[in-house]
Specification:
GMP Synthetase, Chain A, domain 3, 6-stranded mixed beta sheet, 2 domains, Rossmann fold, binds magnesium ion, 9 strands, binds guanosine-5'-triphosphate, alpha/beta, 3-stranded mixed beta sheet
């Protein structure tokens, strides 16, 4: 993966400006008094005829497989995946450019009722993505009942919205099929879930405006059909980003996410949710990348658990993270990890802002929907 711009000199604001979609150009032209649809400009637009491009926001409850789907569609591991809820905390962009289309996907945190400021920030990412979407890709899995969707306001927004709405019902590999007549759900769950037809009927009744596509994001089942449907809903538009764009975050973001993924897979109970990873140093020295990281946790009592006897646990976690980072960056990695206590980082606006969870101006509210 070499498509990230890791210009450490740039402020986040500058980086956001550089990554701003070409769509914004229309507004700049209008400000400059140049009429939209000016025939001289249209001549320059040759080559984009028949091209479609737009933003597709992947929204849904925690753990339904949003990040797995994003990675499968993009063909790279841009978003971390674990079996635990609330793995994704940010809005993560993944761009796919084809011959006649460009889709800018946004993977988002699972929809939840926020209990603390960090979760408010996560929900602001969801609402921002929803507001920006040309197509909303709502995702559920075979287990979820539409009545249990965690946020009624968002659900009603989807019911009433005139924007194209696709509903992907994920994990259908778990249902009984020709090779696994019993399925993989267990008897009780199977009775509760019913057949795929039952699942689809429940969601179609709750969201009559949605086109429903059953998929398995992990097994790549029906993703061609999903992609075809998404392409049909894209507005005619030239590409929004240069053709070779994959994502918009700097390399150190992916480093911190891969380390955070290991915290989710290596520790239990509240520890993954109490921790944040900050990459304090990222030096690419050609064949080797030196990464310095700090794990912040909310309680003193977590420190010995994170570190383990004589540092054994942290060493094990560090080794797993290093191997993954080497795979991801295609280079040797030197990884340093430290543990610090930052008692209220999940509610402290300054910390949350430093960790990238706040909108400009310190607001977590988003008014777009
Ligand atoms: N059986 C099955 N499991 C899947 C499928 N897609 C994802 N999973 C599993 O579901 C779990 C959650 O996947 P994620 O992609 O992290 O889910 P998410 O919706 O991004 O979760 P949050 O970021 O926490 O909201 C992981 O254990 C995945 O391996 C699928 O198609 N079939
Ligand atoms: Mg996720």
């Amino acid at each position: 993966m070499e498509d990230y711009d890791d210009d450490e000199e740039l402020s986040d604001q500058h980086r956001a400006m550089l990554a701003a979609p070409a769509k914004k150009l229309d507004e700049l032209l209008k400000d400059a008094g140049i009429e939209f649809g000016d025939p001289t400009l249209m001549e320059d637009d040759q080559g984009s005829e028949g091209f479609r491009a737009g933003f597709v926001s992947i929204i849904g409850s925690p753990n339904v497989g949003k990040s797995t789907l994003m990675n499968s569609l993009v063909g790279e591991r841009v978003s971390i995946v674990t079996s635990k809820q609330q793995t994704t905390r940010h809005q993560i962009m993944g761009v796919v450019t084809g011959e006649d289309f460009q889709i800018v996907y946004y993977d988002t945190p699972g929809v939840l009722r926020p209990n603390y400021k960090l979760q408010e920030g996560m929900m602001a990412f969801v609402k921002e993505s929803l507001g920006d979407a040309d197509v909303v890709l709502l995702m559920t899995d075979v287990f979820e009942d539409p009545r249990d969707f965690p946020d009624q306001q968002i659900f009603e927004h989807m019911q009433q919205s005139r924007r194209p709405l696709l509903l992907a019902v994920n994990k259908i590999d778990l249902l009984p099929n020709a090779t696994h007549p019993q399925g993989n759900l267990g008897k009780d769950a199977l009775e509760r879930v019913g057949t795929l037809q039952d699942v689809v009927a429940r969601w179609q009744a709750a969201l009559p405006n949605a086109s429903i596509i059953p998929i398995s994001a992990r097994e790549y089942f029906n993703l061609d059909e999903l992609l075809a449907s998404l392409k049909e809903e894209l507005p005619p538009s030239p590409p929004l980003y240069p053709n070779d764009t994959l994502t918009d975050k700097p390399q150190r973001f992916f480093a911190s996410e891969l380390i955070r993924e290991k915290l989710f897979t290596s520790y239990s109970k509240e520890i993954p949710y109490s921790c944040e990873v900050s990459v304090t140093g990222f030096k690419d020295q050609g064949r080797l990348i030196k990464i310095n990281s700090t794990i912040f946790t909310t309680r003193d009592s977590h420190v010995p658990i994170l570190i383990g006897t004589k540092g054994s646990k942290l060493k094990e976690v560090g080794t797993q993270a290093r191997l993954d980072l080497e795979n991801f960056f295609g280079k040797k990695i030197y990884l340093e990890m430290r543990v610090k206590v930052r008692k209220d980082w999940r509610s402290n606006l300054k910390d949350l802002s430093a960790f990238g969870y706040m909108q400009q101006g310190g607001e977590t509210e988003n008014t777009k929907i």
